[in-house]
């Protein structure tokens, strides 16, 4: 019975990679799924087994391991990040002047996809059909810039960065122009979620992968151990000193 229980525990906690596909990816932790195995929900047991390990974190990306849940729950987190986490994005663009080569519709679309660095928790959702915004549901941004020639540019230069002033439009002032072209724009940014429009999605992409478990069937030593370690990402396999030799089990 002990061996049987150990086998059930291994099956219900692992996704199996077979020769022709992946199996056991569906949720199995519910009572009665495995005869003789008590799979009743226990919040204390879940809290003990579940953990989140942050692997990498910076301003643009985050990688973390969720240990103690199955693939279905991991995928649910991915879908929540894509579609349910609110952000601020440009909803309306009022173009008063646009003499650039970019059409109004294309320019408005690009402005709408620029990430807005604002905490959505500080704002309310804007009511449907409401024409005028307020300080509690709308951020008003203005882009007013004009490109001109640089009088100090060298006559032999062909670099636009030297020939023109304000020829590039960045998100800090919003620029992409040639001499004589001008933009005078007001943008209204509102709160929304990714399932309504992709511009509200807080992530460029969100994905998950299964946490692998590597089991060696024999001791690997010496040069073979070094070569095997190089086959994996850093930190997956560590070498140990076994009787004066480099190896691991």
From TrEMBL:
Could you tell me one molecular function GO term of this UniProt entry?
A: DNA-directed RNA polymerase activity
**Pfam families from the entry?**
RNA_pol_L
The superkingdom of the source organism is Eukaryota
Stretches that traverse the bilayer: none
Query: Per the record's keyword annotation, is Metal-binding included, yes or no?
Result: no
DNA-directed RNA polymerase RpoA/D/Rpb3-type domain: from which residue to which, for each copy?
61-245
Q: Its Gene Ontology biological processes?
A: DNA-templated transcription
Please provide the record's keywords in A-Z order. Answer: DNA-directed RNA polymerase, Transcription
Does Metal-binding count among this protein's keywords? no
Q: Which residues form the signal peptide?
A: none
Name a single GO cellular component.
Answer: RNA polymerase III complex
Among PROSITE patterns, the record links this protein to: RNA_POL_D_30KD
Q: Which PANTHER family match?
A: DNA-DIRECTED RNA POLYMERASE, DNA-DIRECTED RNA POLYMERASES I AND III SUBUNIT RPAC1
Q: What protein is this chain from? A: DNA-directed RNA polymerase RpoA/D/Rpb3-type domain-containing protein
